[in-house]
Amino acid sequence: MWKKHSKLVKDFISALMEFNTDKRLTAKEALEHEWIKKSATMDNVDTAVTAEAFKNLSKFRVKF
């Protein structure tokens, strides 16, 4: 699945999923990420990938 995605998006997702909350992106930092800035137009949103990403994120659980 990850082969078709850019290094920039992989970096963004990894930063959002960082276990250590001190290292994890804040909402502000996430919105300022280079991938978001380059991708933040509705013209280039792949709705199938977006829907799949939200589905996967909804299943994500961290146990403390």
Summarize the structure in words.
It is a single chain. The protein has 64 residues and is mainly alpha-helical. It has one domain. Helix content is 53%, strand content 0%. It has four helices and no strands. The longest helix is centred in the C-terminal third of the chain and has 13 residues, at 47-59.
Name the features.
4 helices; single chain; about 60 residues; mainly alpha
The backbone outline, from C-alpha atoms, is globular
Q: Counting H and I runs of at least 4 residues, what is the number of helices?
A: 4
Overall pLDDT metric: 82
Structural class: mainly alpha
The profile of the biggest β sheet is: none
Radius of gyration, in Å, reads 13 Å
Order of helices and strands: HHHH
For the termini, the CA-CA separation is: 28 Å
Low-confidence stretches: none
Strand content: under 5%
Q: Please estimate the helix content.
A: 40-55%
Q: Number of DSSP strands?
A: 0
What number of structural domains do the residues give? 1
Summarize the structure.
The chain is an all-alpha fold and 64 residues long. It has helices at 7-16, 27-31, 34-39, 47-59.
